[in-house]
User: Fold this.
Amino acid sequence: MITVEDKELLAKKGISEEKIAEQLANFETGFPYLKLASAASVENGILAPDAETQEKYLNTWESYTNTDKVVLKFVPASGAASRMFKNLFEFLGADYDTPQTDFEKTFFAQIEKYAFYDDLNEACQQTAGAGIAELVAQGNYKAVVAALLEQNGLNYGSLPKGLLKFHSYDDDNRTPLEEHLVEGALYASNKNGKVNVHFTVSPEHRALFQELVDKKAAQYAKKYGVEYNISFSEQKASTDIIAADMDNKPFRDNGKLLFRPGGHGALIENLNDLDADIIFIKNIDNVVPDKRKGDTVLYKKLIAGVLVSLQQKAFSYLQLLESGKYTHEQVMDILQFVQHQLFCKNPEVKNLEDAELVIYLKKKLNRPMRVCGMVKNVGEPGGGPFLAYNPDGTISSQILESSQIDMNDPEKKEMFEKGTHFNPVDLVCAVRDYKGNKFNLLDYVDKATGFISYKSKSGKELKALELPGLWNGAMSDWNTIFVEVPLSTFNPVKTVNDLLREQHQ
Assistant:
C-alpha cells in the first residue's frame, strides 16, 4: 500500500507510517460527540468580577510584570485574506459590471473610508491608467476591484490579513501586525520594557512579515519606550494530515498521496516550542485603533491577573501536598478550590480515601492553566463555553465547537443554541509547573476531539481530518477558567466591509 515514493514523501514531512495508520483509523471510526453537563453561564462556570475584585486582579498582574518572568504574546497569523474578499471576487466574476448587491454597493459608496484607499488609488493609476474616482465615474468598477485583489495591483486577495492596512491614523495607516505590536507594549511588557511577540505565518509570506517588522518595529519601540523581541514560526509539515477517499483509503492525486494542513490545532506544537511563563493568545484580525483599545488592554490585564492569582494558589497547594505535612481539613480546602475555582468536579470524590484524594488533586492541579475571556452571545458563529465530561469521568470547563456537539440530540442542540456566551479567542496561558519546568503541552491534547469534513480535489470527493482545535481539543486537559469580557474587546474582520464598522474607523 505504501510505495517507495510515499516513504520518501513521509520522511521529508517527518510523518511516521504509524501516524498515517492512526489517521486512517480515525476516518474509519469517526470521532465521538462530547458529553455535555451544561452550557457555562455567569452563575455556572463564568466569572464576572465586580469593580473591587477587578482592581485586585489588575494589581496582581501589575506586580507580576515587575518580576523576571517571561510574558509572550502569540498571534496565529498564517491565514490568507481570500475569504475577506469573497464577495468582491464574486463581483469580478459576475456577468454584470456595476454593483448590484448591498455588499458591492456599500463597498463603493464608502470606499474612501478604507485605510488602503490611497494605496489603491495609486494601484488603479498604475494598472488602469486612472484613479478610483475617475474609474467609478466611467462605470469601470471592476478595474478598481482588480487593482485591489490581483497580483499586478495590491494583491490583497492573496496576502495574509496581518499585512493589510486596517486602520487610518493621522501620521500613518496600520496593519493588524502593527496593532498587535502596540497591544504587546500596552499589556505584555516586563519591568525592563521587553515585549515578546510571536506570529505563526505561512512559509510563502514569512519574508513579507519580516520586511514589515524591519520597517516598523523600531518606530513603535521608540513611541512606547519598549524593546521588541519579535519571532515567527510556521505550521509544521509533520502536522499535515493524509486525505482519505470515501472508502477510508489514502487519497491519491495523480498517484501521489495527498496531505492537507491539520487546522489551527497544529499550532499547539508551535506553542509548545516557545519558552515563556505566561502566553497571551489572540487572533490576528481582532484589533482596533488606539482610541478604542482601552477595554482591550484593561481586560487583557484582568484575565492575566486572574490567571496569576489562581496559579499562585495552585502552586502553594502543590507544595503543601508534596511536603506530605497536611491535615484532612487542608485536603478538603484544596478540593473546594479545585471544584469551585477551577470548576473541575468529580462525582466519585466522596468515595475516595484521603491518600487517593491527594493523588487525584495533585494530578488536577499540576497541569497547564488558561483563563479565557468570553463575550455575550450576539449570534456570531463559532464555539462557546461549556461544562463537559472528560474521559476520566470528571466534569470541567471546555470551549466547544458545534462539530463536537450532537445536534441530532434535541437536548444538546438546545444547550448549544441557548448558550449565553461565545468564544472570541482571548486566552492567557500558564505553561510551567510549580517547580518551574515547562509542561509538554502535547500530553494534554484530547486526540478524540478532531473532526472530519468533506472536500474535493480534481473533481473527486475526499475526506479531510482536522486536528483537535487549538482552544478546544488541543487544550482539553488544561485547567480552564472563563471570565466575562465586554463585547467591545471582540472586533474581528471577517469581510472587507467589517472595516467600515465604527470600531475600525
Q: What stands out?
A: The mean pLDDT is 92. The longest helix spans residues 294-323. Residues 82-158 form one domain. The chain has two domains: 35-80+193-504, 82-158.
